[in-house]
Amino acid sequence: MINIAEILEKNKIQDYDIDTYELGFAERIIAWVLNPFISGILILIIIGGIYFEMQAPGIGFPLLAAVVALVLYLVPYYLNGLAAYWEIIALFAGVVLIALEIFVIPGFGVAGISGIIMTVGSLVLIMLRNDFFNFDFIPLGDIVVAMVSAMGGLAGGVVILILGGAKIANTAAFKKITLSQTQESSQGYTVNANAIVMNGKRGIAHTVLRPSGKIMIEEQLYDAFTRGEFVERGEQIEVISSEGITLKVKKV
């Protein structure tokens, strides 16, 4: 392989200075994070962290991991001029739309689909030096790599959610930070003294149940959740069982 010195000698250039630039620690970290493979792993951590925090709220570590991964993903691309303001805003807007679809808007429609498109699209665009969707000076290979990295991270996150979601509760690390013992009422533990008499009672959905919300029975409000189905406000419900201070209900 021909080096710079050989090229200069071949062209008979004798009066020259060669300055060698070495990346500093911060630059090496940024260059490492900009690797498409690392970007895909960060996307995977973001998705997995948010999911596991929603599954076990209050733990904090999954959400912290997701936030750190998001910062590591965005900051290097922003410092290198790849992530524009509108791309970052589109990413957060997509996440907000998905959250609205899950927690506020019943069913799965325009908000959810738009959120997924905006989230995936912004993750890809952040990795490309485009000028408001102008890809004239971007090699096709870079576009393919960015799409594979984003979709690979998303797909890996989904796989982890499917395969690892059910197993994480059985790990030793998870049991150390969660309550695994059952507090039986025979031992004196009690949360809701009226839990038994509520079974079989009927009322109405005071709010939309998606699948959790508020219900009203005999002019009293209770926290409730369904077995997964959505119940519109005002529809009749029946109490199936009690889970602590929360009632499990079904639509009549």
Detail the topology: elements first, then pairings:
Blueprint: H1 4-10, H2 25-33, H3 36-55, H4 61-79, H5 85-103, H6 110-126, H7 140-164, H8 172-176, H9 195-198, E1 202-205, E2 212-217, E3 220-225, E4 236-243, E5 246-251
Parallel strand pairs: 3-5
Antiparallel strand pairs: 1-2, 1-4, 2-3, 4-5
Count of distinct strands? 5
Shape: elongated
Distance between the termini: 78 Å
Structural class: alpha+beta
Q: Determine the strand fraction and express it as a percent band.
A: 5-15%
Computed CA radius of gyration, to the nearest angstrom: 27 Å
What does this structure look like?
The chain is an alpha+beta fold. The protein has 2 domains: 25-176, no CATH class; 185-251, Beta Barrel (OB fold (Dihydrolipoamide Acetyltransferase, E2P)), CATH 2.40.50.140. The protein has helices spanning 4-10, 25-33, 36-55, 61-79, 85-103, 110-126, 140-164, 172-176, 195-198, and strands spanning 202-205, 212-217, 220-225, 236-243, 246-251. The longest helix has 25 residues, at 140-164. The model has no long low-confidence stretch (mean pLDDT 76).
